[in-house]
């Protein structure tokens, strides 16, 4: 017997209430599902500085890997030269045997060929020929890897330079150095110096280096102010002597802050922050202005 369902009036108040409840619940669930499925729109997009930092880090790693590969290839070439030297020193009686061994395809074949010549050095020569062949193969493979990595380094260098240019343009156009809230006004020269310094964020510190990819503390500030059209001197002591000394209350973005008996210098960018090239093993970065005891402040004359 077929099941019998009681009739219901779809227009009854209770039915309408139930429908509204179900619809509302369904819409709420749908909204929640969509919110979970969609990417987090509130997440901030990476800034130019973040992108520059990422690319600079990738470039640093790629350059390190490239240096390692080149060192390995140099070692392999040395192994090949050692093997060749052994062959060059072989008695004339086995010269023909060595040539024949070059055509052999396995260590056993090489020993078989050489043993036919009755040389007492057959094992050593066979090993040398094998080492030479293996080194040649490794050199070929490493050279291919080096070519690929050099292309990667070139690509990352191009990306980094483009990001630096964009960052410098953005900082120059803003005229504020983008250093945070409550930043003081900044001159066009100061904006240019700050823009240059910001564009070097992520570059490695190397003592005595003057750019364009590595800096020490004073070469960074020198190059930044040079980009803004002013000469301030190469080292920290010259910059301390050549520039006008000011009070902290008069600091503007682009002015310099000195530490460690004028042994270290940083550039003030506003908002209580400086940009500087710290020390070996670190990169150009932001730091609080009071990161260490301060000797004084200067501004270009």
From TrEMBL:
Biased composition (Low complexity): 168-188
Signal peptide: none
Biased composition (Basic and acidic residues): 70-80
Chain ranges of the NlpC/P60 domain: 187-301
UniProt region (Disordered), positions on chain: 70-90, 167-188
Alphabetic keyword roster: Hydrolase, Protease, Thiol protease
Molecular function terms from GO: cysteine-type peptidase activity
Family: Belongs to the peptidase C40 family.
Protein name as catalogued: NLP/P60 protein
Native species: Stackebrandtia nassauensis (strain DSM 44728 / CIP 108903 / NRRL B-16338 / NBRC 102104 / LLR-40K-21)
